[in-house]
Each structure stands twice: as C-alpha cells, then as structure tokens.
C-alpha cells in the first residue's frame, strides 16, 4: 500500500483529538437529540435493533446518503468485522469475521458464496450485487456470524440485507443529479404514487456513466469505466385490513470496458525478459485488449402477508435471472515481442433462480412465546462457459482451453425458531433448520496447446463428464437474553452455519471435475451487550465471539488454468466488536466502530506446504471507523457536514501468507457538505471519497511462470457535486 498524502491524515488525527476533548468537557444539554430507534428484520420479523440478540449493523436511508454510501464496498468501511474487495461488479468478495467466498467462486458454476446477499427477502446467489441508488432503500442490514437457522445455506459467515421502502400513502418525487471528476454523471429518480386508499406504486431509476480510472497504454483507452442503467418498480395493495400484497421488479444493465489487471514485476522470479516494459504506475496497465464487462440482472418478486387470528402467514415467491459476460486480460509484455505473453479470461454465464418461502409467525401464552416456522425451496439453473487463452508469440507454446459447465441445484429446507420469556427479563430462544440439497452437473474441458505448455493447456483433447451429489445439514441455534432494565440487553448464543458443497468445473481433468468438494460447517459462539445511556443520547453495543470452522473451502491457484476450490482446512476465529453512536448536544453526532480479529488456520496442510497457524485471507487484525456529523441552521437553511474516517490493518489475500500478496494497513477519508433549503425542497452537496488518495489493492495473485504479480486497485480520489430536489 502506498499513501500519497500524509498531511491530511495528520490533520484529521489532530481534529479528532480536539473534537473529543471539546465533547468531553461539554455540558449534556437537556434538549439534546436522542438516538433514533432502528427497526431491523434480523430474525425475519420487525424488531428494535437494541432488542435483537444478534450482532447486526443497520444503516438507514439518511445515513446512507450523508455517508455517500454507493456500494457494498463503502458499506464495509463503516461496518465492524466486514471487508469487501471487488475485481469488478460481478467478482466481489465479501468476508465477515474472516470468512468469505473462495477466490475462484465466480469462475465456477458449481460453487456458492460464504457471505450471502438478500434483496427484499430474496436470496441473491449469483449475478453480482444490486445498484444501491436504484433501490428506494429503507435500510441495509449486515448480520455477522453464522445465520444458518432462519436464513439457511451459505450464510456461514454472515449476510447483507437490502430492504426497500414499501410504497406509501403519500405522493412524492425525488430527483438527483451528480457530476464528478473522471466525467462522472449520475442521475436518479424516485417516485411514489398513492393510487387510492388501498393501492400505491413506487419506482426508482438510476443512470451512471464515468470514464475509467486507469489507462491502457497499449490501446490508449481508459478502462475500468462505468456505464449502468438500473431501476425498480413496486406495487402495494391492501384489499383488507388483514391482507397485504407486494409485487416488485428490479433490473440492472451494464455494458462497459473491462478491468485489465495491473502487472507488477515479481523480483523473486524476474529474469529481465517477461517483466520488461511493464509500466510501474498502478493507474496504467499493459494489456493487448481493453476487455469488456456486460451484465443483465432481473428480479421478479411477489410477497403476500395475511394476518390471521393465530398469527401472520407470509408467502414470498421470486424469479431471478442474470446474464453476464466478461473478457479480462491478465498479462502482456509490450517490449519483447519474441517472448510476448497475452493471457486472457473470457466468461459467459446465464443463471435462472426460482425460490419459494412460506413463513408463519405467531405469539402465544400472553405473548410470552414468540415463534415462527417455515419451509423454503430453491432451484438454480446455471450455464457457464469459461475460456482461458494463453497467446504466446512463439507458436509452439500457444494454448487455450474452454470449460463449459451446466449445473442444476435444488435446495429444500424446514425451519423454526421459538423464544419463550421465562420471566419479564429473561428469554430463552431455540431454533433449527434442516436442509436437503442436490447438485447435478455436466462439465467439459476442451484443450489445445503446443508441447511447450504443461497440462492442462499442453494436453490435446478434452473430457465431458456428468456428476451428481447430494448433501443434508442440520443447523440449530440456542440463545439466552436478559434485560435487567430498560435500554440494557445482555445475550449469549450458539449457532451452526452451513455452506453448500459443490463441483470443480475448471479442474482441468475429468476426475477433478466429477469429484465434489464437501460442505463447509461452522459453530459460532457469541456473547454481547446492547445498551443506551445518558437519557438515550449514547448507544453502545459490544460483542465477543469465537467461530470454529471445519471442512473450510479454500481456493488454490493452478498454473495456466484457474483457481480451484477444495476442503483443506479447519480454522478458529476469535474477536470482539464495538459500535457506538453519541449525540452530545443538538446538531452533533459521532458514530463509529472497532473490530479485533484473530483468525487462523488450526489445521491446513497442502502437499508439503503447512499453512497451520497462518492468518485467514481478508482478515485484518484491527479495523475501525469514526464519523462526525454536524448540522447547524443558517438563516432558516440547514447546513450539514460529515466526515468519515476508517482504518484497516494489514491483510493477506492468500492462505499461504505470501509477503507480496498482501494489502498493507491503509486509511480512507470521505467527506460531505450539504445545504438544504428552508422548506426541504432543495439540497446541494459537495462530496469527496478517498480524499488522501490511498492506493489500495483489491487482491493480489502471484504467477511465478510469468514472473509477475496481478493486483487490481480500488478507486482513487473522487469528488463531485450533487443536487437533490424533493416534493
């Protein structure tokens, strides 16, 4: 990691210290604004955040706007224990408390994530994350730790929930226009129409274009740009006081240039040939083509809520369709044509997902018993073709491979959770989920190559195999929470999480493609406290945890092929997390979090390599953030300023903990200054992100054969202005 500006960081530290000293000595005014109540659905029913015995961080719509949160990457900077790295909008790796998806999961039609995304209750397994601006969001929730009982498979590390606002009873319109550096233009429209007393419709539309952050010196074009359309439409009908019907549709369309990897010469393997001519500037890449990224994502959703005398019955039916294609150049050498390397990955995927969930939530025994039971069905049809091209200038060692993959996955689950108030202060909760899964796949590999290349590209011919496997998993949860007084909740829990097994479609051999890898399991133990103090001006939440993983799915790089996934390890993760929000006096808010993480393999041996005791990938030991927001009236106008600062310690991208496959400790500084008209109709805001222009790798992969290291980077410093109109 390289920091290009040190002075702003020192100035920020001085400012924070001065503000903390001033705040400590300030009188706690009786009219100070209290912290707002936040409603979450971390247990699939609406509850106050402070009464839920689960580690969850929630961001409301206003907090997302003031913090200029536009993606899950921004969200991760402000959430304890949560890291996110993105190669592109499709290949985004999330990790919560040290557990994330194996690196090659986006190449593999038979794999699944470890941290899942739900959009309005719908499981979003593939196709990338939605565009935040297109969704008329009410909040985003991040649940940390295994969530195997109520949310099911693949929430072994945790999950992220996007929750949209339901169409309301009042007409409204919001228009936004943004212009920023790199010729960024972002337009957004949100509308709500109350058709009558029983029907309302809401809609959102987002359009974004931006020049690329990087220059491809070979083609002369800007790459890693943005060109996106996204939208959402919802209809809400209440034909009676006991029946509610919600219909929803959202889409995302992208068609933009690719994200060529920046090549870094690896001194350990450099013979002065393959590394010659590589531009050291991290914002300049040497690629023979710009590549491309295309994505179409559609979701259709129908939710019915029926209140009966016994409880509430919910039916959620969803169809999710995604198509994407990407061409990503990896290596090239512009100086030595006889030894030129052109390595490219081309992927195309079509995914169709259908899900149906039934839930029944009820209260009994004078509300001392609160429970819910349900059933869940999921079917995914995934069709993927992966091309790996090695185009050397020497014909004898040219090679390429094509890996078609077709996978049909089905999952069925029964679940229930019951909480009983033993006393007015003490509640005991128990739940369980039983899951049955099956995956059927057809995997092929067609390879051509010269004698100079090793297998798999150096092997002529191919394979075409079929494979099938089924698994089942029992994932219980027990918890105890005690509320000795108002605004104080103490809790302890034990939860089992589960991640699906899969197939290695890109293994390069028939045997490897037909051999499944096992599911991943985790037991999570957690104790925590949720508190509010000083007449509800201070919110302070704390959690400590230990998570034991077995059959951990680990990715391994196969030279000249791909990243393969296998069950290779057990791990133990321990840590602590702290979140706070304080309003010392009217107009001032300070919020932040801290996470400590000790995530290590307890048993991980691959061949002659012993990784036992190594740190898990994407597991920084320390991570913290602080935000300061101040609102002041100026002649009936409202002026609001916010600064967000975050720090993340060093982390590894590889289980081997190789020195050059790391991201050193880094900081991030964002700011926003907004002015709102007296009637709240107009708002003008100036904003900036990564103001110190930190250079941050999103991952790093070592390729000794090429004597090079691949390391894409996060966005540089960006800034702009946003105009908002509301009525």
UniProtKB/TrEMBL annotation:
**Annotated GO CC locations:** cell outer membrane
Q: Which UniProt keywords apply?
A: Cell outer membrane, Ion transport, Iron, Iron transport, Membrane, Signal, TonB box, Transmembrane, Transmembrane beta strand, Transport
Which membrane topology term applies here? Multi-pass membrane protein
Domain TonB-dependent receptor plug, first and last residues per copy: 49-158
Q: Looking at the Swiss-Prot or TrEMBL record, what is one Pfam family this protein matches?
A: TonB_dep_Rec_b-barrel
Where can this protein be found?
Cell outer membrane
Q: Which residues constitute the signal peptide according to the record?
A: 1-29
**InterPro entries, per this entry?**
Beta-barrel_TonB, Beta-barrel_TonB_sf, Plug_dom, TAT_signal, TonB-dep_rcpt-like
Which GO BP terms apply?
iron ion transport
List, for all copies, the residue spans of the domain called TonB-dependent receptor-like beta-barrel: 249-691
What domain of life does the UniProt record list for this protein's source?
Bacteria
UniProt record similarity statement: Belongs to the TonB-dependent receptor family.
- Can you say what this protein is called? TonB-dependent receptor
């Amino acid at each position: 990691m390289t920091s290009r500006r040190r002075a702003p960081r020192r100035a920020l530290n001085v400012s924070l210290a001065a503000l903390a000293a001033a705040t400590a000595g300030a009188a706690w005014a009786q009219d100070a604004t209290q912290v707002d109540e936040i409603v979450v659905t971390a247990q699939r029913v609406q509850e106050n955040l402070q009464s839920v015995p689960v580690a969850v961080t929630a961001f409301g719509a206003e907090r997302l706007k003031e913090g200029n949160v536009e993606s899950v990457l921004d969200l991760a900077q402000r959430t304890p224990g949560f890291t996110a790295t993105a190669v592109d909008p499709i290949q985004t790796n999330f990790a919560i408390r040290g557990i994330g998806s194996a690196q090659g999961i986006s190449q593999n039609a038979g794999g699944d994530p470890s941290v899942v995304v739900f959009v309005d209750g719908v499981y979003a397994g593939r196709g990338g994350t939605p565009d935040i601006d297109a969704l008329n969001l009410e909040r985003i929730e991040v649940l940390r730790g295994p969530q195997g009982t109520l949310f099911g498979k693949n929430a072994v590390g945790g999950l992220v929930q996007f929750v949209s606002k339901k169409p309301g009873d009042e007409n409204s319109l919001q228009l936004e226009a943004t212009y920023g550096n790199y010729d960024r233009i972002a337009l957004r429209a949100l509308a709500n129409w109350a058709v009558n007393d029983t029907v309302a419709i809401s809609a959102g539309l987002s359009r974004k274009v931006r020049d690329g952050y990087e220059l491809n010196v070979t083609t002369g074009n800007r790459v890693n740009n943005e060109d996106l359309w996204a939208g959402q439409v919802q209809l809400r009908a209440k034909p009676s006081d006991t029946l509610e019907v919600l219909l929803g549709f959202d889409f995302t369309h992208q068609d933009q240039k690719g994200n060529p990897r920046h090549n870094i010469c690896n001194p350990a393997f450099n013979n002065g040939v393959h590394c010659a001519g590589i531009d050291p500037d991290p914002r300049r890449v040497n690629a023979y083509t710009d590549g491309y990224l295309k994505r179409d994502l559609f979701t259709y959703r129908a939710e019915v809520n029926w209140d009966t005398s016994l409880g509430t019955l919910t039916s959620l039916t969803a169809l999710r369709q995604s198509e994407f294609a990407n061409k990503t150049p990896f290596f090239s050498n512009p100086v030595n044509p006889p030894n030129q390397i052109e390595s490219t990955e081309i992927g195309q995927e079509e995914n169709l997902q259908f899900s149906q969930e039934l839930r029944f939530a009820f209260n009994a025994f004078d509300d001392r018993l609160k429970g819910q039971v349900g059933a869940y069905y999921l079917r995914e049809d995934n069709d993927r073709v992966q091309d790996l091209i090695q185009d050397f200038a020497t014909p004898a060692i040219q090679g390429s491979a094509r890996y078609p993959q077709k996978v049909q996955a089905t999952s069925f689950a029964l679940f229930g959770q019951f909480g009983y108030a033993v006393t007015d202060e003490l509640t005991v909760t128990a739940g369980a989920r039983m899951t049955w899964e099956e995956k059927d796949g057809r995997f092929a590999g067609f390879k051509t190559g010269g004698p100079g290349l090793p297998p798999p590209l150096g092997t002529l011919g191919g394979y075409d195999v079929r494979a099938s496997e089924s698994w089942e998993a029992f994932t219980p949860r027990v918890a105890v929470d005690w509320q000795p007084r108002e605004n104080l909740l103490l809790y302890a829990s034990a939860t089992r999480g589960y991640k699906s097994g899969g197939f290695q479609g890109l293994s390069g051999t028939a045997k490897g493609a037909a051999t499944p890898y096992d599911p991943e399991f985790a037991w999570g133990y957690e104790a925590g406290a949720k508190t509010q103090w000083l007449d509800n001006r201070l919110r302070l939440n704390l959690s400590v945890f230990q998570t034991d993983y077995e059959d951990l799915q680990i990715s391994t790089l196969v030279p000249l092929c791909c990243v393969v996934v296998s069950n290779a390890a057990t791990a133990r993760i321990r840590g602590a997390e702290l979140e706070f929000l304080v309003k010392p006096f009217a107009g001032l808010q300070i919020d932040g979090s801290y996470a400590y993480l000790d995530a290590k393999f307890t048993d991980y041996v691959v061949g002659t390599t012993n990784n036992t005791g190594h740190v898990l990938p994407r597991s920084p030991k320390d991570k913290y953030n602080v935000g300061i927001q101040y609102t002041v009236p100026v002649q009936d106008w409202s002026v609001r300023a916010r600064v967000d600062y975050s720090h993340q310690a060093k982390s590894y991208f590889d289980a081997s903990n190789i020195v050059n496959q790391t991201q050193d400790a880094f900081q991030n500084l964002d700011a926003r200054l907004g002015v709102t008209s007296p009637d709240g109709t107009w708002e003008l805001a100036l904003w900036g992100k990564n103001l110190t222009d930190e250079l941050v790798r999103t991952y790093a992969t070592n390729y000794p054969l090429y004597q090079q290291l691949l390391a894409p980077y996060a966005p540089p410093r960006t800034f702009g202005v946003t105009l908002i109109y509301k009525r």
